């Protein structure tokens, strides 16, 4: 299957370190390392990396690698990719030497095939939360991707990993079978603004002339001049308003100046 795998021509890195890796990238190359099968790791780089990066991005996992002035053509598998701080550009690649007959674990992309019937409804959108799955199989049988047909997928239904059919009988699915691969949902639009204000109704006018009771105060006195206002709760014999006829003097108050003394 992988006799027609893409070929990568690499060169050995004579110097290591971040500074020299940056120089390789600025020149259009890709720093990498090759290891595995009991051999010493070899730091290498791909001089013209654009085509290789494009193949990796498209889902290629297995390559035939040839080192200039070094080892002969070897079959390698991508084990890890490092991206820049934005997560968009590949800045380093790890390749592992493999044999076509050995079993390996690798992640392969999931391609959704067909047009879901549920997408014909107004506001329907397709969710694709799981875009790749991990499988175990022989290197020779490792697929570039797995296909999932979604023609009969309707609103409110979903396709899980358990429903994916692997192309080989000896392949094993390692990803959790309950993970969701595709689902059709209805997008709801929430309107705010004037309509929301209309639903809520006009606000009740606030009386700003009345004195509000202090928060937490029990039996706060009613506003001055309020008709039929009751005395404050718990107040014993609340004194009538100042100047009221027959008002009793305050307890312990001295007689007013010039008043007659009792004989």
Summarize the structure in short.
The protein has helices spanning 18-26, 50-58, 194-200; strands spanning 7-12, 30-36, 39-46, 62-67, 74-83, 90-97, 103-113, 124-127, 132-138, 146-149, 158-160, 172-173, 180-186. With 263 residues, the chain is mostly beta strands.
Helix and strand arrangement:
Blueprint: E1 7-12, H1 18-26, E2 30-36, E3 39-46, H2 50-58, E4 62-67, E5 74-83, E6 90-97, E7 103-113, E8 124-127, E9 132-138, E10 146-149, E11 158-160, E12 172-173, E13 180-186, H3 194-200
Parallel strand pairs: 1-4, 2-6, 7-10
Antiparallel strand pairs: 1-3, 2-3, 4-5, 5-6, 7-9, 8-13, 9-12, 11-13
Classify the fold: give the CATH topology of the largest domain.
Answer: Ribosomal Protein L25, Chain P
Q: What is the CATH class designation of the largest domain?
A: Mainly Beta
Structural class: mainly beta
Q: How many strands?
A: 13
Largest sheet geometry: 6 strands, mixed, barrel
Shape: elongated
Low-confidence stretches: 196-205, 217-263
Roughly what fraction of the amino acids lie in strands? 25-35%
CATH superfamily of the largest domain: Ribosomal Protein L25, Chain P
- Our count of helices gives 3
Topology pattern, helix = H, strand = E: EHEEHEEEEEEEEEEH
Can you name the CATH architecture of the largest domain? Beta Barrel
End-to-end separation: 131 Å
Question: What value does the average pLDDT take?
Answer: 76
């Amino acid at each position: 299957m992988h006799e027609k795998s893409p070929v990568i021509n690499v060169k050995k890195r004579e110097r290591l370190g971040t500074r020299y890796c940056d120089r390789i990238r600025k020149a259009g190359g890709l720093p990498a390392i090759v290891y595995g099968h009991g051999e010493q790791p070899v730091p290498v780089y791909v001089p013209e990396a654009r085509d290789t990066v494009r193949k990796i991005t498209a889902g290629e996992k297995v390559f035939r690698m040839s080192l200039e002035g070094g080892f002969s053509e070897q079959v390698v598998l991508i084990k890890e990719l490092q991206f820049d701080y934005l997560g968009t550009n590949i800045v380093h690649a790890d390749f592992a030497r493999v044999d076509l007959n050995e079993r390996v674990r690798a992640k392969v992309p999931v391609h959704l095939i067909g047009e879901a019937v549920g997408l014909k409804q107004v506001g329907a959108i397709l969710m694709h939360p799981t875009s790749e799955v991990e499988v175990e199989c022989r290197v020779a049988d490792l697929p570039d991707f797995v296909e999932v047909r979604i023609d009969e997928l309707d609103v409110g239904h979903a396709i899980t990993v358990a429903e994916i059919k692997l192309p080989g009988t000896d392949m094993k699915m390692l990803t959790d079978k309950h993970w969701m691969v595709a689902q059709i949902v209805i997008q709801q639009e929430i309107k705010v603004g004037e309509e929301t204000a209309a639903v809520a109704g006009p606000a009740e006018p606030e009386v700003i002339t009345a004195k509000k009771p202090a928060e937490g105060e029990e039996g706060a006195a009613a506003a001055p001049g309020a008709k039929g206002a009751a005395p404050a709760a718990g107040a014993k014999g609340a004194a009538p308003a100042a100047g009221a006829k027959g008002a009793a003097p305050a307890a312990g108050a001295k007689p007013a100046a010039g008043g007659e003394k009792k004989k």
